[in-house]
Amino acid sequence: MTNSGKFVEGWPALMSSEMAARYVSVDEDLLLHLASQMDIPVVEVEDLAIRWRRQDLDRLIKKLPSASSKLISDRPARIFKLERSQVEAIAETVARHLERHESRSESKLVSINEATSILGIGRSSVYRMISEGTLETRHIGRRTLLLRSDLNAILEGSCDS
Length: 161
Description:
This protein is α+β, with helices and mostly antiparallel strands. The protein is built from 8 helices and 6 strands; from the N terminus they run βααββαααβααββα. It is 51% helix and 14% strand. α6 (112-119) crosses α7 (123-132).
């Protein structure tokens, strides 16, 4: 808990039931059950939605350690079982997504500043390597760019620097 009395920074003052449940780290049904047991009020917004005040949720969290363990243990845990084929399908989908993301995010050309970060050396060392011919440059407009493959070769040790 911080000095200001807030448990978590960055959360809105009013939250939907879904967000409030995540804030308290329970599901929505258990949130409603706990709130009714511990007299935590909700805010109705124009008869359309129920909102939870963060300060009330903080109060609920403070009360949880002293709450009866029966309140929490009455609810059975929700367990989702996945078959091996489902897990493999999810893994393949994630792998394909990561491959697409990597191929888009890794350009063939990098700036001098990016090269210094990749190689872990200073700008003057990069310029020295350019003048020695270790690194090949490309010019696009006024920008001087380097081939990522040259940087990878240096990192792998297959290029003399």
